[in-house]
């Protein structure tokens, strides 16, 4: 298969960035200069994803009123709306990336003029969806984005991933990218984690699954410039 790389920029949105984001990732905004450098390279396809929730989304602690529920901490069990036997334990978050609010906007520093497609995810209020490909249920899958079709239709071989957050949406997007058959790379300087102490463990888990971590100076990024 010929080398045909795509860049996927995950959820570089106001709510994941300081100073005002409701779910701000430490130093999240600082990656934008590196992401813009990646955008200046001749990737065959450049895609930005957006977490894009309805106000009544299942992942918001505010939608599970109980004195015990704390955003960032409480884990709840949710069932597949199409198959109650399939369950998943998931974290509650502050309200974030609500459709048509300023927090859902991509940050204005992002060089959006170089992005070919924007893919929205997380619109189904019944399921969490960290991955930009699909929700985590499998029996059956509940919600899928158009990302897999866009990449397969363009005959992409390699998916380079940047964005937020390394330990949630970047992680699960990378895992699904491997499952979709793409050679999958995460650009280390172009991502940040909600929990910085989790970075090493998440990197190891991703590497075990077949994801390669690369740096801006590494061969894997250099070869983009030579790939026409
Ligand atoms: C994300 C938590 C909740 C992310 C999205 O983009 O990493 N994290 N929703
Ligand atoms: Zn979310």
Automatic annotation (TrEMBL):
**What pathway or pathways are given for this protein in its record?**
Cofactor biosynthesis; nicotinate biosynthesis; nicotinate from nicotinamide: step 1/1
**Record key words, sorted:** Hydrolase, Metal-binding, Pyridine nucleotide biosynthesis
Q: Spell out the Gene3D superfamilies in the cross-references.
A: Isochorismatase-like
Query: At the top level of its lineage, which domain of life is listed?
Result: Eukaryota
Q: What class of enzyme is it?
A: hydrolase
Q: What would you give as a GO molecular function for this chain, any one?
A: nicotinamidase activity
State which Enzyme Commission number(s) the record gives.
3.5.1.19
State the Gene Ontology BP annotations.
Answer: pyridine nucleotide biosynthetic process
User: Which Pfam families did the record assign?
Assistant: Isochorismatase
Residue intervals of the Isochorismatase-like domain: 6-217
The Swiss-Prot or TrEMBL record describes its family as follows: Belongs to the isochorismatase family.
Q: In its UniProt entry, what is this protein called?
A: nicotinamidase
Species in which this protein is naturally found: Glonium stellatum
| Species classification | Eukaryota, Fungi, Dikarya, Ascomycota, Pezizomycotina
């Amino acid at each position: 298969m010929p080398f045909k790389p795509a860049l996927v920029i995950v959820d570089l949105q106001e709510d994941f960035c300081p100073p005002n984001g409701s779910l701000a990732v430490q130093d999240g905004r600082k990656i934008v200069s590196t992401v813009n450098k990646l955008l200046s390279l001749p990737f065959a396809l450049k895609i930005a994803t957006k977490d894009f929730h309805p106000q009544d989304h299942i992942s918001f602690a505010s939608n599970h009123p109980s004195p015990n529920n704390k955003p960032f901490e409480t884990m709840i069990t949710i069932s597949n709306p199409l198959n109650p036997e399939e369950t998943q334990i998931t974290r509650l978050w502050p309200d974030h990336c609500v459709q048509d609010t300023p927090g859902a906007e991509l940050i204005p520093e992002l060089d959006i003029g170089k992005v070919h497609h924007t893919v929205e995810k997380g619109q189904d209020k019944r399921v969490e969806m960290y991955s930009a490909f699909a929700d985590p249920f499998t029996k059956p899958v509940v919600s899928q984005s158009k990302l897999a079709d866009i990449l397969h239709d363009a005959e992409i071989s390699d998916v380079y991933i940047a964005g937020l957050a390394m330990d949630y949406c970047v992680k699960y997007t990378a895992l699904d990218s491997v499952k979709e058959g793409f050679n999958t790379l995460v650009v280390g300087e172009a991502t940040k984690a909600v929990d910085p102490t989790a970075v090493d463990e998440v990197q190891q888990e991703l590497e075990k699954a077949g994801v390669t971590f690369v740096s801006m100076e590494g061969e894997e990024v250099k070869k983009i410039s030579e790939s026409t």
